[in-house]
Write a structure and sequence with these properties.
The chain has helices at about 25-30, 40, 45-50, 80-105, 125-135, 170-175, 175-180, 255-265, 295-305, 345-355, 440-455, 465-470, 505; strands at about 55-65, 110-115, 120-125, 140-145, 165, 190-195, 225, 270, 280-285, 325-330, 360, 385-390, 415-420, 425, 430-435, 510-515, 515-520. It is α/β, with parallel strands linked by helices and about 525 residues long. The chain has a seven-stranded parallel sheet with strand order 7-9-6-10-11-12-13, sandwiched between helices. Strands 2-3-1-4 form a four-stranded antiparallel sheet, sandwiched between helices. Strands 5-8 form a two-stranded parallel ribbon. β2 (about 110-115) and β3 (about 120-125) form a beta hairpin. α8 runs parallel beside α11 and α9 runs parallel beside α10 (about 345-355).
Length: about 525
């Protein structure tokens, strides 16, 4: 998690996959093995050290064959793109994982299989690492460890008295109310959030929860808990967690997630805290009290591409038609929590984007040095990365800067900035609090995406176009910090990206009065 004075970090977990029923003799045949010692070059050095002296460790086995998702650009609609990605990825994973899963089954080794990056999560010793790493059908073996990073420290409220019918300053400053006045408040759009969970019955959130019809709740396809008691990859939690494990209904064991969701959709008759108050939301808990592994994120990403019901099979029960239009990711995955290799989540994020889902990601709170955007998934080109500004549109001192040097790309980041200092939003138990961080900035962007799709539904699934609308309408901000090759007048730059979001300006890039609704006017500047 990424916020000032609130260091909830997170990692990704994976989905429990059904055991392949029948494997043919050919499928069980071992692939050609690589030369002795070749496994070392495709295994994280941390894993090699961790399995010294017979110790066991948790790791992710990524298969060599990966699905070709270029065809996902052909379908015209978002649902069809999602279906293409889901069917393509599950087919490749089912076929190529069969020999490795059969080997693990024969040895009685617990594992979890994932189609989202064609990988298998395993716990094993050095001998198992060598066996798997020596196979031609295994591309790389990543570390995947649980590590407690300490409880988060919440930012206290200011004690300011709230006025009735108040629209918060951060919502006003980006001109969201002007878009509402035109009749577009996020209606018809679904926002996804993966975080510490959500208090779905909070008065600012309950009406917008897709699993609530006003009189009864149905959490199937609308909520997923990626924290499992039977997780063979660590089981580091304890009985004191207020949400327990495999929670069948939305629950927030920290408060961070409820706060971020409020900034996206939150509203009561007396207070508006959200960018898109008529959008619906669905959620996934990817952290246990602010900590996890790379697998918990992977499981949530996988579920978002094709949500499935409680207890369902992710390989066969997923429904891409129920996927969100945009996902907010207010978290980071440092090496201490398992993201030793910078690319460990890259293919997963790219798959989400291929499915037509905008993936908004906080930049991190490691500022103010250049090159401090250094954690998955905010470092990736496929992520729409957001820095934080204050009420004077000045970059927050904690907001991480680009360029991205951790992977050698020197990629310009962030893409955009939004308010992230002293943001008033919902927290569990019907309360509200002021928090700061890029975690608080990213939800503004997810909410803006929802406003644009509600104004022009044909934008659904058109990730590049939506991101261009946001960047090309932003209020430019320049800096003399000189990160990367930035000059004093550079736009975009590695501090503010393209600038601070402006909801009204983005909306005004849509033409009006054509067949009675808004039609997109193409933005010519590519991302």
């Amino acid at each position: 998690m990424l916020m000032k004075q609130l260091t909830v970090r997170s990692l990704v977990f994976l989905l429990l996959l059904p055991v392949v029923a029948v494997l043919s003799t050919a499928a069980l045949a071992s692939p050609a093995l690589q030369p002795p010692g070749a496994w070392v070059s495709k295994t994280d050095a941390e894993l090699i050290a961790a399995t010294d002296d017979g110790a066991a460790a948790d790791f992710l086995v990524v298969m060599t064959e990966q699905p070709d998702l270029r065809g996902a650009a052909r379908p015209a609609g978002k649902a069809d793109r999602g279906r293409y990605v889901y069917e393509t990825m599950t087919a490749v994973a089912t076929r190529t994982q069969a020999p490795v899963r059969a080997l693990l089954d024969r040895q009685g080794i617990a594992y979890r299989a994932y189609w989202v990056a064609n990988m298998i999560a395993v716990r094993g010793d050095r001998a198992l690492l060598q066996t798997l790493g020596s196979r031609d059908d295994v591309r790389h073996i990543y570390a995947n460890r649980w590590q407690r990073v300490g409880p988060p420290t919440p930012v206290p409220t200011s004690g300011e008295t709230r006025r009735p019918t108040l629209v918060e300053w951060n919502i006003e400053i980006v001109n969201a109310p002007d878009v509402w006045a035109a009749g577009f408040t996020g209606q018809g759009v679904v926002i996804g959030g993966q975080d510490t969970g959500y208090d779905w019955q909070h008065p600012a959130l309950v009406s917008q929860y897709r699993g609530w019809n006003g009189s009864a709740a149905d959490h199937n396809y609308n909520w997923h808990d990626a924290i499992h008691e039977d997780n063979p990859l660590g089981n580091v939690g304890g009985p004191g967690n207020p949400c327990g494990y495999n929670s069948p209904l939305p629950c927030d064991d920290n408060g961070h997630g409820t706060h971020t969701m409020g900034t996206m959709v939150g509203e009561t008759p007396q207070l508006n805290i959200g960018m898109a108050p008529d959008a619906q939301w669905i959620g996934c808990r990817n952290m246990e009290e602010g900590w996890g592994t790379p697998t918990t994120y992977a499981e949530c990403y996988e579920w978002f591409i094709a949500p499935y019901p409680f207890g369902g099979d992710p390989f066969t029960d997923g429904d891409p038609a129920r996927a969100p239009h945009v996902i907010n990711n207010s978290w980071g995955c440092p090496p201490a929590e398992g993201c030793v290799a910078a690319d460990v989540l890259q293919q997963i994020v790219e798959s989400v984007r291929a499915a037509g889902i905008v993936t908004v990601h906080s930049a991190g709170n490691s500022g103010s040095n250049c090159g401090s955007i250094d954690q998955p998934g905010g470092i990736y080109d496929a992520s729409f990365t957001v820095g934080a500004t204050d009420n004077q549109n000045t970059i927050a001192v904690f907001s991480s800067r680009g360029p991205v040097i951790i992977d050698g790309s020197n990629r310009l980041k962030p893409d955009i900035v939004a308010p992230g200092v002293d943001i008033h939003s919902s927290i569990p138990n019907n309360k509200y609090a002021f928090l700061s961080g890029t975690s608080m900035a990213a939800p503004h962007v997810a909410g803006l995406v929802a406003l644009l799709i509600s104004a022009e539904p044909s934008l659904a699934g058109r990730v590049n176009t939506l991101e261009n609308l946001v960047t090309q309408s932003a209020m430019p901000r320049t800096t003399s910090q000189g990160c990367g090759h930035d000059g004093p007048n550079s736009v975009p730059n590695n501090v503010y990206g393209w600038g601070r979001i402006d909801a009204l300006a983005a909306y005004e890039l849509l033409d009006t009065d054509i067949a009675g609704f808004h039609v997109f006017v193409p933005v010519l500047v590519p991302r």
